[in-house]
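Quick one, T. Sequence first:
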Amino acid sequence: MQNLPQYILDTFLTLWPTLRDNPHELAARLQRRRRALLTRPPRAWCIALRPGDTRMTPWDTVLDDCHAPDRQRPHTVTITAALVRRLCQPVYIDPWGEPAADVAARLGVNLQGLAYLMRVGFFRVRRVQGLGGKRGKPVPILHYDCALHGPLDPQSRSFRPPLPAWGSLWPYHANALPDDFEQPVRREPDVRPGRWGDCFQGWIWRCPACDRPTDKLYYPLPVPAIDQYLNLHPSASDADALSPPPPTFACGRCHRVTHLSRADPNSWNAFVTHLSAGLLYGREVPKPADWSGRRNTKARRPNARPALRRAEVCRLLTETDLTRADLAAHLGLSRGTINMHVEAVFDQYGVHSREELRERVAIVRRQLAETASGSVGAKQAAG
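Structure tokens:
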């Protein structure tokens, strides 16, 4: 991808003499700063904190109850500048690979938090039997090319860093906090009812502004605009100046954080508007070829094998009265695999019970039979 900030800067320097000599056009563009787009900070320029970060321990975090994390009790966490800088620093993985347990500890999650990324191929996994004298299953070694993709962001979704178009300053966002910054925030356990009683699912924040439960707190930072970079003053009125975001941690709803995605057709215009503070339109800056405006859809592979087991489970559910345990014994599968197939069949037909599945399958078969008989009649009439 090209150096987009420099790309936008060249366009702005070309159009600035025209805007400077046309006060009506300049006033119309400055009025865009009062719209909702520029009042919503982008996620790439926000400091985020997860409530379940395992690196927040009573030994290095200010808590009002030091035994609350172990006993899963509500407590108050005092967010300081030193804590934010320690939790938000980028994570680099050795080119030769590191054990999955060490990577999870450095990212502030457990091994289950990396299972999905290992399964979808975000990390290249290599398993070594008996590494470090450990018995049992082979030890997974994770590989990630930080030189190509950049370091990992421990506070982002799936630990992916922001788009390179936003620049390379995201590892230093935490340094923008004042050294004496302190804010107490309530943290509570996320307990949900389960089969064997209440089950602890993790931690949640209580937003200091709206008191709603949230899985992440944000501290927005002002986006560096082109006019500030060039030390320009397009207007002498304070009404046309961008108001800085509130210097406090709150949920994404209170700060109105926007998540820009290149799958959105308006993402390029929003990106250019943020970096130019409303002085440029997206249509004035040529969009690079790799800024895709199409949504990435997961298509089934043409050579994929048919789900024979799922079809057999669907047939047994509609034609017999076997329970799930009987299905597992009949097909020689585990109970968990049978549950997975049953839920997939229910989702495929949009039902919630076996009775609804039978009715739905009967309707589908009737429609297919009518369609087949109609096509045969049409062929006979044509012949």
